[in-house]
Model the fold of this input.
Amino acid sequence: MKVMCSSEESLYRPEVFRWRERMRLLKPLGDLIVILPCSMRKPYSISKSHQIFRKHSKHYQELILTSPFGICPRELETTFPIQSYDVPVTGNWSFEEKKISGELLKYYAKDKIVVANVSGGYEEVCREYLEDCIYTCKDGKPTSFESIYSLKEELKKFPKLERRERLLHKLRSIAIYQFGEEGYNFIHDDVSIKGRYHEKILLNKKQIGLLNADTGLYSLTLKGGEILKDFSLKIVEIDFDLTTNTLLSPGVEKADHSIIPKDEVVIVRNDEVVAVGKSILSGKEMEETNKGVAVKLRQRVK
Done:
């Protein structure tokens, strides 16, 4: 599903605002951040410009500067809604766009070394909001031979991040974005991945979730629900036996108020995980309404 962002009012769309708020929960990997401009094609890495950038920057913490979302760490580029928004790319930024993106960039890049291969409005944001930054774009074209050579030579000065380290950081960043700050604990050091399109996330050979390629988010299994339950994340409490694959609102005793529609949630009875599924209502609505479906279940204990 495309998220249309064709005017400045798009800065305050709920999903856009929520994205920026959740970016403040994330921390970059390593001591270096490489800032790159966004592209019209999504996810960014399939665009011609980012294929050029990535030949030299993929072993570092990459950060894409974009409006109206502000910033996008590379590891989240396939996550909804950043993987499917549509916005005119002109290079010209309004005052409000610069302010919102710049403040978020400054927060994310605090105490880090920053190398920026950007021009136009992207460069203006960096120069206004970053005190120290190394600029590699030499002629106003980030993809030119001179700019890419400058970027490559600058990055040679810094150690590359290990592949396993980058993988764990990606998986944990997605979990933090999806479940909240404690979502970091969803991904243990020993997790493994199986599959290519929809990737199974395994812990001790047991599947805890599925990384859905269509949304870039996790779908939970009962085992994954037990991990979230230990950290009180996305919990819906009930006091009866589940016999169907839907949970109706009248059966909800208590629900995490951070839950919004389409969230992955964990159904708990007597402090035991009895099901996992996708929310239809917000947590507050589940508690307050007396009719309708609250959660569509994916798995339940039988």
Observations:
- Helices lie at 14-23, 48-57, 95-108, 120-129, 145-155, 163-179, 222-230, 283-288.
- The mean pLDDT is 94.
- The chain has two domains: 3-155, 234-302.
